[in-house]
Structures are given as C-alpha cells and as structure tokens.
Amino acid sequence: xxxxxxxxxxxxxxxxxxxxxxxxxxxxxxxxxxxxxxxxxxxxxxxxxxxxxxxxxxxxxxxxxxxxxxxxxxxxxxxx
Length: 80
Ligand SMILES: [Zn+2]
Fold this sequence. Notes:
- By secondary structure, this protein is mainly beta.
- It is built from one helix and three strands; from the N terminus they run βββα.
- It has one helix at 71-77, and strands at 16-27, 50-62, 68-70.
- The protein has a three-stranded antiparallel β-sheet.
- Bound molecules: zinc ion.
- Zinc ion binds at residues 8, 10-11, 13, 62, 64-65, 67.
C-alpha cells in the first residue's frame, strides 16, 4: 500500500492520528456472588453481561500542535 503523507494544515507536521472515541455502558446482573453472571470470586469489570454503546465518533488529531479535525473533511482535503 502506498504510504501517502498526511500533513497537518495548521503546523505542517506529519504527525496525525486517527482517534476513535466511544462511550459504553456495561451491565452486570446482581446474583448471589460477585455482580455479573461471569464473576464468581471477585468483580472484574471486563466480565460484563451486557455492553451498550451510547456514543462514538472519529476525528483526526495532530500530535504536535494538538489541532483536531473532522475526519470526513480531512479525507476530502487530502487530494487538493
Ligand atoms: Zn499540527
């Protein structure tokens, strides 16, 4: 795959990251031992019974100047 260079429009650095940010609600059924059917001795947050995503979005961030750009706008800009 061709390694196309993405340049920050603000500081011209080649230090861009695509960030995917998401919020989840984890549910654990209260049973006789630790909360959650999969938790027996201790409560482990990753052993959830149900996970609902409430929100998610993607954006581009420059790790040098910390500018943030909308992902869709940025991908349409790259060929200009
Ligand atoms: Zn920058």
